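Record pair follows.
FIRST:
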Amino acid sequence: MRLKELRKQKNVSQLKLAMDLQLNQNAISRYETGQREADYATLIKIADYFDVSIDYLLERTDNPNRYK
Protein backbone atom coordinates (compact mmCIF):
# COMPACT_ATOMS: atom_id res chain seq x y z
CA MET A 1 0.00 0.00 0.00
CA ARG A 2 1.20 3.50 -0.79
CA LEU A 3 0.11 4.85 2.57
CA LYS A 4 3.58 5.72 3.86
CA GLU A 5 4.51 7.43 0.58
CA LEU A 6 1.34 9.53 0.58
CA ARG A 7 1.67 10.37 4.25
CA LYS A 8 5.26 11.58 3.82
CA GLN A 9 4.39 13.61 0.71
CA LYS A 10 1.79 15.49 2.75
CA ASN A 11 4.08 15.79 5.81
CA VAL A 12 1.56 14.03 8.03
CA SER A 13 2.75 11.98 10.99
CA GLN A 14 1.32 8.56 11.76
CA LEU A 15 -0.20 10.00 14.92
CA LYS A 16 -1.88 12.92 13.09
CA LEU A 17 -3.26 10.59 10.43
CA ALA A 18 -4.55 8.20 13.07
CA MET A 19 -6.24 11.02 14.95
CA ASP A 20 -7.77 12.51 11.79
CA LEU A 21 -9.14 9.12 10.74
CA GLN A 22 -10.11 8.09 14.27
CA LEU A 23 -7.77 5.10 14.14
CA ASN A 24 -5.00 3.80 16.33
CA GLN A 25 -1.44 4.85 15.47
CA ASN A 26 -0.35 1.22 15.74
CA ALA A 27 -2.85 0.31 13.02
CA ILE A 28 -1.36 2.96 10.71
CA SER A 29 2.12 1.58 11.38
CA ARG A 30 0.97 -1.97 10.66
CA TYR A 31 -0.74 -0.90 7.42
CA GLU A 32 2.50 0.76 6.31
CA THR A 33 4.65 -2.29 7.07
CA GLY A 34 2.19 -4.78 5.61
CA GLN A 35 1.62 -6.51 8.95
CA ARG A 36 -2.09 -5.71 8.72
CA GLU A 37 -4.53 -5.01 5.90
CA ALA A 38 -7.09 -2.24 6.11
CA ASP A 39 -10.75 -3.16 5.83
CA TYR A 40 -12.94 -1.68 3.12
CA ALA A 41 -14.27 1.20 5.25
CA THR A 42 -10.75 2.17 6.31
CA LEU A 43 -9.49 2.07 2.72
CA ILE A 44 -12.25 4.51 1.79
CA LYS A 45 -11.29 6.83 4.67
CA ILE A 46 -7.61 6.78 3.69
CA ALA A 47 -8.33 7.30 -0.02
CA ASP A 48 -10.68 10.20 0.76
CA TYR A 49 -8.16 11.74 3.16
CA PHE A 50 -5.43 11.82 0.49
CA ASP A 51 -7.89 12.41 -2.40
CA VAL A 52 -6.69 9.37 -4.35
CA SER A 53 -8.41 6.29 -5.71
CA ILE A 54 -8.41 3.06 -3.75
CA ASP A 55 -6.73 1.39 -6.74
CA TYR A 56 -3.87 3.90 -6.46
CA LEU A 57 -3.66 3.34 -2.72
CA LEU A 58 -3.42 -0.43 -3.28
CA GLU A 59 -0.86 0.01 -6.10
CA ARG A 60 -3.20 -1.38 -8.75
CA THR A 61 -2.59 1.74 -10.86
CA ASP A 62 -0.11 4.58 -11.03
CA ASN A 63 -2.90 7.08 -11.68
CA PRO A 64 -3.88 8.71 -8.37
CA ASN A 65 -7.02 10.36 -9.80
CA ARG A 66 -10.32 9.25 -8.37
CA TYR A 67 -13.01 8.29 -10.83
CA LYS A 68 -16.06 10.45 -10.44
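SECOND:
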Amino acid sequence: MSMNRQQKRMLQRQGEVDADGEPIRARRKQPSSGPPQERTGVFQFLREVRNELRKVAWPSRSETVNYSIVVLVTIIVLGAMIYGLDWVFSVFILDLFDN
Protein backbone atom coordinates (compact mmCIF):
# COMPACT_ATOMS: atom_id res chain seq x y z
CA MET A 1 0.00 0.00 0.00
CA SER A 2 1.60 3.20 -1.17
CA MET A 3 0.90 6.31 0.90
CA ASN A 4 2.64 9.42 2.08
CA ARG A 5 3.51 10.19 5.72
CA GLN A 6 0.46 12.34 6.34
CA GLN A 7 -1.93 9.64 5.11
CA LYS A 8 -0.07 7.01 7.12
CA ARG A 9 -0.27 9.05 10.34
CA MET A 10 -3.96 9.77 9.83
CA LEU A 11 -4.75 6.11 9.22
CA GLN A 12 -2.68 5.11 12.28
CA ARG A 13 -4.70 7.53 14.44
CA GLN A 14 -7.89 6.01 13.07
CA GLY A 15 -6.62 2.52 13.83
CA GLU A 16 -6.67 1.41 10.20
CA VAL A 17 -2.94 0.63 9.79
CA ASP A 18 -0.07 -0.38 12.06
CA ALA A 19 3.34 1.32 12.34
CA ASP A 20 4.54 -0.31 9.09
CA GLY A 21 1.51 0.89 7.13
CA GLU A 22 -0.09 -2.54 6.89
CA PRO A 23 -3.86 -2.78 7.36
CA ILE A 24 -4.86 -3.89 10.85
CA ARG A 25 -8.35 -5.08 10.10
CA ALA A 26 -10.37 -5.98 7.08
CA ARG A 27 -12.84 -3.48 5.76
CA ARG A 28 -16.43 -3.94 6.74
CA LYS A 29 -18.70 -5.40 4.14
CA GLN A 30 -21.78 -3.45 3.21
CA PRO A 31 -24.85 -5.05 4.77
CA SER A 32 -26.82 -6.87 2.17
CA SER A 33 -30.42 -5.81 1.74
CA GLY A 34 -31.57 -9.40 1.49
CA PRO A 35 -32.63 -11.30 -1.57
CA PRO A 36 -33.36 -9.20 -4.66
CA GLN A 37 -37.00 -8.28 -5.01
CA GLU A 38 -39.01 -9.28 -8.02
CA ARG A 39 -39.96 -6.53 -10.44
CA THR A 40 -43.57 -5.48 -10.55
CA GLY A 41 -45.53 -5.61 -13.76
CA VAL A 42 -46.76 -2.60 -15.71
CA PHE A 43 -50.37 -2.98 -14.60
CA GLN A 44 -49.37 -3.37 -10.93
CA PHE A 45 -47.23 -0.23 -11.23
CA LEU A 46 -50.06 1.78 -12.79
CA ARG A 47 -52.49 0.56 -10.11
CA GLU A 48 -50.10 1.68 -7.36
CA VAL A 49 -49.55 5.05 -9.06
CA ARG A 50 -53.31 5.61 -9.27
CA ASN A 51 -53.73 4.70 -5.60
CA GLU A 52 -50.97 7.10 -4.57
CA LEU A 53 -52.42 9.92 -6.68
CA ARG A 54 -55.75 9.46 -4.90
CA LYS A 55 -53.99 10.26 -1.62
CA VAL A 56 -52.66 13.60 -2.91
CA ALA A 57 -54.33 16.72 -1.52
CA TRP A 58 -55.01 18.50 -4.81
CA PRO A 59 -55.56 22.29 -4.68
CA SER A 60 -58.94 23.66 -5.66
CA ARG A 61 -59.43 25.64 -8.86
CA SER A 62 -59.46 28.97 -6.99
CA GLU A 63 -56.24 28.10 -5.15
CA THR A 64 -54.58 27.17 -8.45
CA VAL A 65 -55.67 30.46 -10.03
CA ASN A 66 -54.41 32.43 -7.01
CA TYR A 67 -51.05 30.65 -7.01
CA SER A 68 -50.69 31.23 -10.77
CA ILE A 69 -51.42 34.94 -10.36
CA VAL A 70 -48.85 35.23 -7.57
CA VAL A 71 -46.23 33.51 -9.72
CA LEU A 72 -46.94 35.69 -12.76
CA VAL A 73 -46.86 38.92 -10.73
CA THR A 74 -43.59 37.85 -9.10
CA ILE A 75 -42.04 37.07 -12.48
CA ILE A 76 -43.15 40.42 -13.90
CA VAL A 77 -41.86 42.39 -10.89
CA LEU A 78 -38.50 40.60 -10.80
CA GLY A 79 -38.14 40.89 -14.58
CA ALA A 80 -38.81 44.63 -14.39
CA MET A 81 -36.27 45.00 -11.56
CA ILE A 82 -33.61 43.12 -13.51
CA TYR A 83 -34.36 45.15 -16.64
CA GLY A 84 -34.15 48.40 -14.66
CA LEU A 85 -30.87 47.48 -12.98
CA ASP A 86 -29.42 46.35 -16.31
CA TRP A 87 -30.42 49.65 -17.91
CA VAL A 88 -28.98 51.73 -15.02
CA PHE A 89 -25.70 49.82 -15.03
CA SER A 90 -25.37 49.99 -18.81
CA VAL A 91 -25.92 53.77 -18.78
CA PHE A 92 -23.38 54.09 -15.96
CA ILE A 93 -20.78 51.98 -17.74
CA LEU A 94 -21.29 53.76 -21.06
CA ASP A 95 -20.95 57.17 -19.35
CA LEU A 96 -17.90 55.94 -17.44
CA PHE A 97 -15.99 54.87 -20.57
CA ASP A 98 -17.32 57.55 -22.90
CA ASN A 99 -15.01 60.56 -22.57
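COMMENT: The two ends are 66 Å apart (CA to CA).
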